[in-house]
Amino acid sequence: MSAAAKTTNAPLDGAQLEAIDTWWRASNYLAVGQIYLMDNALLERPLAEQDIKPRLLGHWGTSPGQNFLYAHLNHQIIERDLDMIYLSGPGHGGPSLVAAAWLEGTYSEVYSHVGPDARGLNALFRQFSFPGGIPSHVAPETPGSIHEGGELGYVLSHAYGAVFDNPDLIAVAVIGDGEAETGPLATAWHSNKFLNPTVDGTVLPILHLNGYKIANPTVLDRIPQDELESLLVGYGHRPYFFEGGFDDEDPAEIHQRFAALLAEVLEEIGRIRREASDGIREGRPRWPMIVFRTPKGWTGPKEVDGLPVEGTWRSHQVPMAAVRGNAEYTRLLEDWMRSYRPEELFGPDGRVVETIARNNPSGTRRMSANPHANGGTLTRDLDLPDWRECAVDVPSPGGATAEATRVLGEWVAQVLDHNRDNFRIFGPDETHSNRLGAAVEEGGKTWVAEVVDTDVDLSRTGRVMEVLSEHQCQGWLEGYLLTGRHGILNSYEAFVHIVDSMFNQHAKWLDATRDIPWRVPMPSLNYLLSSHVWRQDHNGFSHQDPGFLDVVMNKTADVIRIYLPPDANTLLSTYDHVLRSKNYVNVVVAGKQPGPQWLSTQEAALHCARGIGIWEWAGSEVAGDKPDVVLGCAGDIPTLEAVAAAKLLREHLPELRVRVVNVVDLMRLQDEREHPHGLSHRDFDALFTTDRPVIFAFHGYPALVHKLTYRRTNHANIHVRGFKEEGTTTTPFDMLMMNDLDRYRLVCDVIDRVPGLAERAAGLRQQMQDKRELARTHTREHGEDLPEITQWVFNDDDNTQGSGAPGADTGGDND
Q1: Tell me: the pLDDT tens digits for 510-529?
Q2: Which residues are 631's β-sheet partners?
Q3: Under a CB-based contact definition with an 8 Å cutoff, are residues 806 and 596 in contact?
Q4: pLDDT category, 7, cuts 50, 70, 90?
Q5: H helices of 205-278, where?
Q6: pLDDT tens, residue by residue, 530-575
Q7: What confidence tier does 682 reach under pLDDT thresholds 50, 70, 90?
């Protein structure tokens, strides 16, 4: 049932109405000035060519509607003492949020060169979308922002992420009607099934219908209201409809009608929360939301060059382009700006009049100064248990078998227990499948929708967030982190690509904040990618893609970290590290199937601290002598194959000096001038030599290793084996052979590349080729790998044979 938009009462007294309307006019004036002017901000003289920017960049169409909303939200914050933040889905409307921050005084507090006076106003106008200035979107540079909005679709997910475990916070999510057409936004409406009114805050969605995208009408604006209402009711909301600005209605009446509607919505929110707190309300609330319909480019030029502008797609960006040097456009621009009556908005010194100031909340109640929008100020470090208590006992290399992510799950369960109000796990229905079951059992899965008897692990206060949408999980986690809390996103490796673009935007956000002094570092975005390319028993080619590492590597070195721990103890040590970090994107790839465990807790801690190191026990080099060949490896399965290849070489070519180098921190391969974790050329050469062949077994696409090492002295001798886009539903070892990453192929590579070895070891090479053929034939006949593969263990004269089958893959539920 929709709520009526008409009202006969007048909730605003004369002073309140004047303050809201004056604030709105001022923000509109500032929005136009930012797009067009570089001088003469107060129009103290007629506009001249030198006052107008030569390049006009920005978006006007959404700005006046958002300014109207912001003005009224400010009034309600003052009246009700609300803790509120504003997320702009149409975030390309940067002029409006920058204007709001300046009007509230926050902008001048954090940017002293943009003061609250005429000089500061000129600086505000000049810097917008100007070389050396600020972006046109609601960017990290904008006080009060946690959502840029330039890439549409995520405002609702971010808003819900912000209010989880924030019971007093209201996140207003303004959704553009073009944005509402995107898949991520359509899914995000279901976030209300995960919001618990007793422990979480409130999201107020405002669907801003103004009719057009860049050049086309919007779907939700062009469907009948009863159809739109049914859609929103179906999503679980109670929609309130408002329309204004389409006729000659007195602006005062528009303000009064919206003030009454907004007050009713906030009263309903308060009632829901009180009833939930008192235990009166059971089940999932039907939260209110607002459908706010206004003309695109409201209060702007009605027409330009005889063509309609206000209320059309022509107002989306710059209603009048190429104004500089065009006398008619300059006149139109000046008339437009003077229509807001700037003489009533600013004093002679350029400061806002007292009427505007009355509509500004004070201190941190200002949405542009709310500490939740600068999450690092509220961050509490996690209380992390000692990971060594969950570690695997490894008496000798390869002397134990474990599922790495299952071991991690035991530790993460303790992390959840120690941090019940500021740590959550997010994942698209795969947390159990990725072997984090202990964490699910400890924290429960958040669920506020219907529950039936056959459900398991569901909880209204759960700490594990699962919905079958990577976009949603990523958006929730980003909102949670941006407001100062901590979390993990676990996903199947192949399908994390779904959020490539979201990752990209978050990495850019982090990069930008490094140069903004008032932005306090916030918890890192931590990925755990499992069910990876080399272990896909229940799936096939569609589930085999390690390319997210390549996507991540394109971002700036200041914020990117990639880790490939080879066993459970190194995975534990790695995750202890990343959960303590700030302002990074940490990508950790680890398998969930049983595998050999190589390092004790002490060895794992040392190895992870180095990020790279020689495994002397795996190789056959002689102290003081230079190795004949280096076997490098990064990733759990490539490490297994490299160690197995080294063992074969030690058995068949005992005179060959083989060095095994394992890489946990992939950035260590890079030049120290390119990445903070990079090795110096001296240190890299010490590990990989300056002239010996290097056979590198890599988890991902081979080109990435070459990209990281192309400046190295010995790069010409580095030969990388990895995934080369060959896959199907097959056995684990057959998958390796399809991509030439198996142990037998690595032995052949050594024989082919060590000078003089090809002639001496021709027989061994032939034997290795025969082994591959026999292994392939066995899989076709028996449907499983050879026993010498599945039952392989690392064992030599110096090491005790481990129990179990480290190379075996027992399958699992990665479906």
Answers
A1: 999 999 999 999 999 999 99
A2: 660, 695
A3: yes
A4: very low
A5: 225-234, 251-277
A6: 989 888 766 677 678 999 999 999 999 999 999 999 999 999 999 9
A7: very high
Q: Could you give the percent of the chain with pLDDT greater than 90? A: 89
Check residues 814 and 137 and name the one with the higher pLDDT: 137
Helix, strand or coil, per DSSP, at residue 696: strand
- Nearest CA to 480 out of 522, 452, 438, 439 is that of 522
The count of structural domains within the chain is 3
323 lies in the same domain as 397: no
Residue in 457, 439, 438, 437 with CA at minimum distance from that of residue 447:
457
R_g of the chain, CA atoms, integer Å = 30
Q: What is the DSSP string of 719-772?
A: EEE---S---S--HHHHHHHTT-SHHHHHHHHHHHSTTHHHHTHHHHHHHHHHH
Residue with tokens 């929360």: 273
Residue 282 has pLDDT above 90, yes or no: no
pTM given for the model: 0.94
Half-sphere exposure at residue 544, Cβ-oriented, CA atoms within 13 angstroms: 24
Of the chain, the percentage scoring pLDDT greater than 70 comes to 96
Q: What is the pLDDT of residue 13?
A: 96
Q: Which of 23, 53, 82, 516 is nearest to 265 (CA)?
A: 82
Which structural domain range is residue 548 located in? 387-594
> Can you give the CATH number for the domain in which 735 is found?
3.40.50.920
* Segment (H or E) for 557: none
Q: Which residue has the higher pLDDT, 354 or 810?
A: 354
Q: What residue has token string 């107060």?
A: 42
| Bridge partners, residue 156, by sequence | none
Q: What is the mean pLDDT of residues 468-485?
A: 97
Same-domain status, 61 and 192: yes
589-614: pLDDT as tens digits: 999 999 999 999 999 999 999 999 99
Residues 413 and 322 in one domain: no
What lies within 8 Å, CB to CB, of 86 at 6+ separation is 70, 73, 97, 100, 144, 172, 174, 367
> Rounded CA gap, 811 and 815, in Å?
10
Q: Which of 750, 723, 718 is nearest to 739 (CA)?
A: 723
CA angle 7, 12, 14 (to 5 degrees): 130
DSSP 8-class letter at 52: B
126 and 247 both lie in a single domain: yes
Res 538: pLDDT: 63
Last residue of a domain, one of 371, 400, 425: 371
Q: Are residues 353 and 400 in the same domain?
A: no
Amino acid at 441: E
Strand partners, 721: 697
377 inside domain: no
Residues contacting 234, CB < 8 A, separation 6+: none
Q: In this structure, are 62 and 128 located in the same domain?
A: yes
Higher pLDDT, residue 743 or 541: 743
d(CA 663, CA 698): 9
Round to whole Å and give the CA distance between 245 and 264. Answer: 21
Residues 6+ apart with CB under 8 A from 774: 786
The answer to whether position 764 is within a domain reads yes
Report the alpha-carbon distance of residue 505 to residue 40 in Å, rounded. 35
Same domain, 462 and 420: yes
Task: Give Cα 815 to chain centroid, integer Å.
Answer: 24
Question: Of 594, 624, 644, which closes a domain?
Answer: 594
Average pLDDT, the chain: 93
Helices assigned H by DSSP within 385-469 = 404-418, 437-443
Q: Are residues 84 and 204 in the same domain?
A: yes
Q: Is residue 812 part of a domain?
A: no
CATH assignment of the domain containing 156: 3.40.50.970
Q: Looking at this protein, which amino acid is placed at residue 484?
A: G
- What's the CA gap between 780 and 709, in Å, rounded? 38
Q: Residue 248: what pLDDT?
A: 85
Tell me whether residue 435 is in a domain.
yes
